[in-house]
Amino acid sequence: METNSVTEITEAAEVTEAAEAHTSTPLLGKAALVTGGSRGIGAATALRLAREGADVAVTYVNGEDAAGEVVRAVEALGRRAVALRADSADAEEAAGAVGRAAEALGGRLDILVNNVGVGVLGPLEQLSAPDVDRVLAVNVRGVYLASRAAAGRMGEGGRIITVGSCMTQRVPGPGGTLYAMSKSALIGMTKALARELGGRGITANIVHPGPIDTDMNPADGPYAEGQAAMTAVGRFGTAAEVAATVAHLAGAAYVTGAEFAVDGGHAA
């Protein structure tokens, strides 16, 4: 049975037309922080958000020059940009980067992309206690603290988007226990954030990249052929393909607590 009146349909069409008129810059006026934004998926995400209208802050630890290149590229698009050195393994710096980014971008923060992460792979018996502490500090604690700090600053329309991993869905071989555990924890965090913040109009989602062509895991690297073969499409993805999904979620109001695989069918 048809439940929408002509008036409702007309109003919905008008809203759609208004949205389409601004599709080139749907994030205009928004302020975003991308952690670990000096290279790879983080850099691609920062540039994609800027192309869609957002001002962007990126954090880095060692890649100061690369972070500077990202800032210049964002500024070339007519947006404000800043690079902040912040080590997510340090609890104070992980949380403090959020406030620093907001201050640098005019006192507000609308979008947090938890992209920073470290991958330590190896047999259980070969991973040390410091390895475990570092991975959990960066991949879990730092993400939690940044998300908590961002939630304290965001108003309605806030977006928290976390970069997980295809290894939360399928671990194709040995050596990934620590990394998979750390990224899997972010699924629970994301779903809980969605429930906790939904009443304030803030969404939380997680994106799981598959094998992505970056400096850390190049498509022509020694293990690339096997990784590509594990996907349904038979190739590596690009950082821009992941960034496109992140940008979509940055503008989506009725999507929260959800997982999105950008993995070429790695988990199929």
Instruction: Report the structural category.
Output: alpha/beta
> Considering the protein shown, what is the CATH homologous superfamily?
NAD(P)-binding Rossmann-like Domain
Number of strands: 7
In CATH's first tier, which class applies?
A: Alpha Beta
Question: In whole angstroms, how far apart are the ends?
Answer: 36 Å
Shape assignment: globular
Radius of gyration: 19 Å
Work out the count of structural domains: 1
Q: Can you walk me through this structure?
A:
The structure is a single chain. With 268 residues, the chain is an alpha/beta fold. The chain has one domain (26-262): NAD(P)-binding Rossmann-like Domain (Rossmann fold), CATH 3.40.50.720. It is 43% helix and 13% strand. The chain has eight helices and seven strands; from the N terminus they run αβαβαβαβαβαβααβ. Strands 3-2-1-4-5-6-7 form a seven-stranded parallel sheet, with helices on both faces. The longest helix is centred in the middle third of the chain and has 23 residues, at 129-151. The radius of gyration is 19 Å and the shape is globular. The model has no long low-confidence stretch (mean pLDDT 92).
